[in-house]
Amino acid sequence: MAVLKTGKLPPDLLQRLLHTYTQADPRVIVGPAVGEDAAVIDMGDRYLLAKSDPVTFATDAIGYYAVIVNANDIATRGGEPKWFLATLLLPEHHTTETMIEGIFAQIAATCASLGIAVIGGHTEITYGLDRPILCGHMLGEVSPGGLITTAGAQVGDVLLLTKGICIEGVSIVAREREDDLRRRGFLEALIQRAKNFLYDPGISVVRDADIACHAGRVHAMHDPTEGGLAMAIYELATAAQVGVVIESDRIPVLEEAASLCQAYGLDPLGTIASGALLIAAAPDEAAKIQRVLQESDLPCAAIGRIVSPSEGIVMATREGRRPLPLFARDEITKLFAT
């Protein structure tokens, strides 16, 4: 039997596992499913939102990452992230009190900036690790009428994308290959700007989602992460059981992303893309949402539309339509294999 590669499980395998090994509960409004960002539990007058996501790439901002990526998935539900738990696994022989305190400080500061309370978790020094791993768990709330799901996308919807791709990927490349970029002749200003993409334009989509929900009627939102924009589009299409047509020349690829991805042979479509937000809405509503986001200094592009599943998941180019590429492994993993 073949050994699986690093990255997300193949969608077909994950779907089979979830279908086979999960149980229904009448209070679970949205349970585990490919493409759905967070669980939704009926608590009466409110829905409780629950999300778990790890940070596994080497980073000097692991505490910040863990809070943001989990808060993002609560926000894509139309909800407010409220409570955070962290499971922190630390490498033996490499862990110091200074390291641990730095991670705790990052978690505390990031939670405070979003009005989130740290309510618990677990910390241990673990055999066999060569770097810290932080598994975050976020709880939030949303009113029943305000709930948004990935499965809510409807045929005829316009698909919007905020900011551009691939914000997180750019920051990782610049942070992990800073010296090599200098040797390759990249300007210092570009390297520093790319490193700071973690914060500006930033990997958070909490503000993007909040503005979108107040600007118009949103049918679906999804947060492109591992596997990049392409994987996020596949996940949205799978959850909603729809087709998608993407206009390749409308995808906003950030200039720094194009340069750094080219340098290391990464396809921006499949490179980890936290910081962008996919939004599906009816054409009139999408136009309002796009305008309000842009007026709020958040770039927003209409990159495609939701179509019948019979049309497939395709990218329209000047040469015609072709299947949207699917990245079984995030392109960023090439960086760690070299």
Could you describe the 3D structure shown?
The protein has 338 residues and is α+β, with helices and mostly antiparallel strands. The protein folds into two domains: 23-146, 60s Ribosomal Protein L30, Chain: A (2-Layer Sandwich), CATH 3.30.1330.10; 150-337, PurM-like C-terminal domain (Phosphoribosyl-aminoimidazole Synthetase, Chain A, domain 2). The protein has eleven helices and 13 strands. The protein has a seven-stranded mixed β-sheet, sandwiched between helices. It has a six-stranded mixed β-sheet with strand order 1-2-3-6-4-5, with helices on one face. A hairpin with a 4-residue loop joins β2 (39-42) and β3. The longest helix has 18 residues, at 97-114. It is globular, with a radius of gyration of 19 Å.
SSE topology:
Elements: H1 11-21, E1 28-30, E2 39-42, E3 47-55, H2 62-75, E4 80-91, H3 97-114, E5 117-126, E6 133-142, E7 158-162, H4 167-176, H5 178-183, H6 188-195, H7 206-215, E8 220-222, H8 228-240, E9 243-247, H9 255-263, E10 278-281, H10 283-295, E11 300-307, E12 313-317, E13 320-323, H11 333-337
Parallel strand pairs: 4-5, 9-12
Antiparallel strand pairs: 1-2, 2-3, 3-6, 4-6, 7-10, 7-11, 8-10, 9-11, 12-13
Helix pairs in contact: 2-3, 2-7, 4-6, 4-9, 7-10
